[in-house]
Write a structure and sequence with these properties.
S-adenosyl-L-methionine, tRNA (cytidine/uridine-2'-O-)-methyltransferase TrmJ, tRNA_m1G_MTases_N, tRNA processing, alpha/beta, Helicase, Ruva Protein, domain 3, Alpha/beta knot, 7 strands
Amino acid sequence: MSDGSAPALAPAIILVRPQLSENIGTTARAMLNCGLTDLRLVAPREDWLSDRAVAAASGADRVLLAARRFDTTAEAVADLTRVWATTARDRYMVKPVDTPRQAANVIRGLEAEGQRCGVLFGPERTGLENDDVALADTVLTVPLNPDYTSLNLAQAVLLIAYEWYQAEAPDSLPAMTKGARDTGPAPKEKLIAFFEHLERELDACGFLRVPDKRPVMIRNIRNIFQRAHLTGQEIQTLHGIVHELVTFRLRKGA
């Protein structure tokens, strides 16, 4: 076993007898996408720091550099209190079965109590052996199309890591505002000034010509723009659009 201090509390990803260094690299990439860095390798067949592995990691080199090698699965899980074993096959063992989402929620709860958890993944061609599964507390199975459940190693890791990450991710993503000159909602005075500008021109072109319908039409138009939560910059753009339309109409009528 190689030396290395334990990383911050988060589930360990344990690859048991992985065959190809590229797959270790893509696994590292999948892990870092979701904030996981504790990669443990049980008797890997190839060098996880090879050029092929580093290239496949696509920038997740630090996960590879921090990876720890173990001779046996038992050694790799020795410091963990709860372990999940990924398999899609019936192993004829009495064990609870979780989906990735269920496992992620349980792991988050255990981490909050200070417990360390890990997830076992077997060799690419054969999957985990029964002796490996026997070391786990729970079987983890991904519910997929029953006619085709084949996943590559990195895909399987990403599915589980993603569920763990989402279990404490924000409910909504921030809006894409980078580079915008005015990203906050416009004050009502700017919105009302635009309404008045638009309504003057709609009166001038005859759109609001029916007196009985005019109040309802104005309310409907205002509600359309209210729902848009316009920024100050967007209102300026709308002013410009109305101005250009009016200018074009007057120039055409001249």
